[in-house]
Amino acid sequence: MAKFELDIIEENDHFIAINKPAGLLSIPDREGKEINLKHILREKYGNIFVVHRLDRDTSGVIIFAKDEEAHQFLSIAFEDRTVEKFYQGIVTGTLPASKGTIDQPIAENMAKRGEMLIHKRGKQSITDYEVEEAFGKFTLVRYQIHTGRTHQIRVHMQFLGNPLACDPLYGDGKPVLISSIKKDYKLSKNELDERPILNRVALHAAELRFKSPNGTPYVLKAEMPKDMRALLQQLRKRVK
């Protein structure tokens, strides 16, 4: 397996928290042939236990347990919603309100494998959102999710009418180009095609908060990756 540099946020005898890069699977997929975080950690630590997961394209904080006791504690904490989960996302357009709560049930789309939708037969799904910066064409939003459904933020933002930038399932999936932000943008001489500034679902797991069994508080934060920061930098220049 290729050498992979882990961005470790917190590590102790019981768990390890990683800032997962976008594009890397959290756990093996059905084929199991692709490099994934669980295998990388297994190679380094031997036994490792999956607590939760992030979508392939989502970057940010993910936690793995190192022993069965920690695995049980953390799994129950996630299930009981005592873990506070915060995300940041760049969505298309302007939100209808600067903050709010989306409480819409999410179910699997029986017609399209791997896709979710809002449906009354689904499980309760609750997302709080708050606008951090508005740029007109795009908006930076902070989320707290109180449930952990597959694609929850992505589905809820589609419901609001503001899908996440570059989302191929719930938005238009188009990469974000600087030329679409800067009117006077010109390709450099050695470029044949413009390279996208962002080319994946614009979602980042920014923070996890919880208390250990002995009451120690943990606040695990992951810095936003370069691609999302680069887009925000360009948007801020344009809005000034």
How would you describe this protein?
Helix content is 18%, strand content 29%. With 240 residues, the chain is α+β, with helices and mostly antiparallel strands. Strand 3 and strand 4 form a beta hairpin. The radius of gyration is 19 Å and the shape is globular. The mean pLDDT is 92.
Short description:
The protein has 240 residues and is an alpha+beta fold. Helices cover 18% and strands 29% of the residues.
Write the layout of secondary structure elements.
Blueprint: E1 8-11, E2 15-20, H1 37-45, E3 49-50, E4 59-65, H2 68-79, E5 84-92, E6 99-103, E7 106-108, E8 116-118, E9 126-134, E10 138-145, H3 152-160, E11 203-211, E12 217-221, H4 226-239
Parallel strand pairs: 4-11
Antiparallel strand pairs: 1-2, 2-4, 3-4, 5-10, 5-11, 6-9, 7-8, 9-10, 11-12
State the separation between the terminal residues, measured CA to CA: 46 Å
Overall helicity? 10-25%
- Biggest sheet character: 10 strands, mixed
Shape, please? Answer: globular
Number of strands: 12
**N-to-C SSE series?**
EEHEEHEEEEEEHEEH
The mean pLDDT is 92
What structural class do the secondary elements suggest? alpha+beta
Which residue ranges are poorly predicted, with pLDDT under 50 across at least 5 consecutive positions?
Answer: none
What Rg is obtained from the alpha carbons, in whole angstroms? 19 Å
Work out the helix count.
Answer: 4
Query: What fraction strand?
Result: 25-35%
